[in-house]
Specification:
six-stranded mixed sheet, 213 residues
Length: 213
């Protein structure tokens, strides 16, 4: 039986009552894409792969979703999701709820049609958020996860893990999820990430030899 869990949080939405989801929820975030091409052009390969993955899932734009660890919500404007609640540790731009994601998430059971967790798990010391995601999702709903494997330490001191696909398969299964799609991303994007982080050299800039490499 699903039990709602309490916790310390702060609601930034102008109408906190909507947190109960008894009425249609709108995050109020803009879905307009401004300077889309120039913005994406400056993204890393990894970030572009994240967006491609999310777009490939064809998420229903009218469904109710939760972005756990949304950060600056970089993907929202491109996904054009109308009803997306954003939660994170601190007041990033566009965040609706501030809460410690290592603890219980103070939202009602079976509230959401989908949950996004992009590049979050490596920054949480405790992985209970996976169980919390299962509790918050409606029956048959979907969890979309992206996370790095070959990447330098970042956002110190909150960078704790690099998970293998073996861990993800086992952990998600233990928490009641059925794996529908698993898409490793690598090749040139992974190579570029390694070179940029470990050798501090941007492949997409500099000499002709660098670009050829």
């Amino acid at each position: 039986m699903c039990k709602n869990r309490g916790g310390s949080f702060k609601v930034l939405n102008s109408n906190p009552a909507k947190i109960d989801f008894t009425n249609n929820f709108s995050s109020g975030l803009s879905t307009e894409i401004s300077e889309k091409d120039s913005e994406i052009r400056n993204w890393t390969y990894w970030r572009k792969e994240n967006l491609k993955f999310l777009l490939s899932r064809n998420i229903d734009k009218d469904s109710l979703g939760l972005d756990i660890g949304a950060g600056d919500a970089l993907f929202h404007q491109f996904l054009k999701l109308k009803n997306l609640v954003s939660i994170d540790f601190t007041n990033y731009s566009g965040i609706n709820i501030i809460s410690d994601l290592n603890l219980n998430i103070p939202l009602a059971c079976e509230s959401f049609d989908f949950i996004l967790m992009t590049n979050l798990l490596e920054h949480l010391y405790d992985d209970r958020v996976i169980a919390e995601a299962n509790r918050l999702l409606k029956k048959g709903a979907r969890l979309y996860v992206t996370l790095p494997f070959l990447l330098d330490v970042h956002q110190q001191p909150y960078d704790y893990h690099r998970y293998t696909y073996l861990y993800l398969e086992k952990k998600l299964s233990q928490e009641g999820f059925e794996l529908e799609n698993f898409s490793p991303s690598g090749d040139f994007g992974t190579f570029q990430t390694l070179v940029e982080h470990y050798f501090r050299f941007r492949i997409d800039s500099g000499s002709l030899i660098g670009k050829i490499l």
